[in-house]
Design brief:
alpha/beta, 11-stranded mixed beta sheet, 4-stranded antiparallel beta sheet, globular, disordered N terminus
Length: 524
């Protein structure tokens, strides 16, 4: 009998491993340790999700007990536990949740001759901000960054940005890891110098949610887990478990050669060369180490790298991706509240001629739209086509039109729509339509008092087509608040229409009464 087992029996509780109950695809690769070791996220100034179970985990090579104590600002113990490491050296303790407040706590963990202390801990609302380069863009590189960096310091906003080691074919993690190899700090929003190097969208979102959550006498800190990485495809952010449990998804991934069958050494080697973009790699390196954290929701800004790829596969991947994140962040069968940020207007390697016919980027956003419709109370597909395409404000990034620098209005819209899950504020979109006397009558949901354009400009962005499918710009008139009449002298007998459905769609200008742009749309 192991000494850990004997000690546990004395205390009446068997040791728990962080891998208990996990399948072979979910198990964390546990490193060999010679001292008490905590995951990288357990650092001073960290923030836990309030009101949900508080989970503390780590590794201990010692055979004796691990003592865990959460202390309040006066040094009084408010949560205590004694646990034992399992045979794999890992330990887990779960406590009753802590209410949100501006009071700071500290965490003490002792095992053998070692002890660890984590100071200045807050409990509030924690969000995951992920995606590729537009989410990865840091504050120093955005337009109007001075508004952020000269704002009143806020010690109750915290942002965690784990780094990852350079990922060559030989060291990219193909199984979930215990902790990021390089890790990162928790940055407080009263440390203005450090704020230059955090996600701009994530920080502005945190500031906006803080204002919403603290409009009265509330005391609700806000935290961000920033996990984005530039140039990445959705496959790298997916878990192997989510793929293996969905036979149809796995089959299509194999057909599209983004996943290798056992024995396919050639494809396996090709995928390995992709480094960060190899399937499951960044899930293993950045998401799996956070899987014991509870969160309030996800802001996702990724999809540029999907343009030109299979949209059938992308739709299945998005479904599996959100289901898995809902599961690991403890929403169970409920869908994790998610804002899917639409990718920006850009050519996306398609010819410039006839830009109204180039729809690669629009098809990605269409996948987001369809997914959001199926999960309308928890997922929103956020239009971005009206936001300024401003460039050239960057200090270190190459000036690239795929990276517009006006990120403040984008993040502020994400706040409004995330808040809308519980306060009835949703994106307007076209649904039912009919054809009458050579005109199309389209009805818009979530108009909230009516559709209009800024300064009553003429409506732009609609196209209609006839039986030959050649499309032309259409005139549009709003009536009955939420309906639009479409007509074109060139197409006397229209059979379908689209709105803002092309890569360079930043001229479309129809909004609902709450200032949210109508979602892109096509009838077929």
């Amino acid at each position: 009998m192991l000494e850990t087992e004997a000690l546990a029996k004395v205390e009446g509780e068997a040791p728990k491993s962080i891998n208990d109950g996990k399948t072979e695809f979910e198990r964390i690769s546990i490193p060999v340790v010679t001292e008490l070791t905590l995951p990288d996220i357990f650092k001073d100034d960290m923030l836990f999700e309030a009101d949900k179970p508080l989970i503390i985990w780590g590794l201990s090579p010692y055979l004796n007990k691990v003592e865990i104590t959460l202390l309040d600002k006066s040094g009084q113990a408010v949560r205590t536990a004694t646990v034992y490491p399992a045979e794999d050296t890992s330990f887990v303790a779960e406590f009753e949740g802590v209410a949100p407040s501006f009071d700071e706590y500290s965490l003490e963990i002792k095992a053998g001759k070692d002890s660890k202390e984590v100071k200045n801990i807050l409990f509030g609302r924690l969000y995951l901000a992920g995606g590729q380069s537009n989410m990865d863009m840091i504050v120093r590189d955005i337009y109007r960054r001075e508004e952020i960096l000269t704002a009143k310091p806020n010690p109750y906003i915290r942002i965690y940005t784990p780094a990852v080691a350079p990922c060559d074919p030989e060291n990219c993690a193909m199984t979930p890891v215990f902790s990021p190899e390089r890790g990162g700090p928790w940055v407080r929003a009263d440390h203005l110098g450090a704020l230059k190097d955090v996600t701009a969208v994530g920080l502005v979102f945190a500031k906006g949610m803080f204002e919403k959550l603290n409009s009265g006498e509330e005391q609700v800190p806000v935290g961000i887990l920033s996990t984005s990485h530039g140039g990445t495809v959705i496959e790298t952010w997916m878990s192997r478990q989510s793929i293996e449990q969905d036979a149809e998804l796995k089959r299509e991934m194999l057909e599209n050669r983004v996943l290798a069958n056992e024995g396919d050494a050639v494809l396996f080697a090709e995928l390995k060369k992709q480094g960060y973009n190899n399937t499951t790699v960044l899930f293993n390196m950045k998401i799996a180490p956070l899987a014991n954290m509870n969160i309030s929701g996800l802001v996702w800004y990724q999809g540029e790298s999907q343009v030109g790829k299979s949209m059938s596969l992308f739709a299945k991947e998005m479904d599996a991706f959100i289901k898995e994140y809902s599961k690991i962040f403890r929403f169970g069968e409920k869908t994790l509240p998610t804002v899917l940020t639409n990718i920006t207007p850009f050519l996306y390697n398609e010819p410039f001629e006839k830009p109204e016919e180039r729809i690669g980027g629009a098809r990605v956003n269409e996948v987001f739209n369809e997914f959001a419709k199926c999960h309308s109370t928890a997922v929103v597909s956020m239009p971005t086509y009206d936001i300024s395409l401003r460039y050239g404000e960057t200090e270190v990034w190459d000036e690239n039109p795929i990276h517009p620098t006006d990120k403040i209005p984008l993040a502020e819209r994400a706040v409004e729509l995330f808040w809308g899950f519980t306060h009835e504020n949703f994106v307007p979109f076209f649904g039912a339509f009919k054809i009458e006397s050579g005109e199309i009558i389209a009805e818009c949901a979530n108009a909230y008092g009516g559709l209009a354009t800024p300064n009553n400009e003429p409506i732009r962005g609609f196209r209609v087509w006839g039986a030959n499918r050649e499309s032309f710009p259409a005139d549009a008139i709003v009536f009955c608040n939420n309906k639009v009449r479409l007509f074109s002298a060139i197409v006397p007998n229209p059979t379908g229409f689209s709105y803002a459905f092309c890569n360079m769609n930043n001229e479309a200008n129809l909004f609902n009464a709450r200032g949210i742009p109508v979602q892109i749309f096509r009838t077929d």
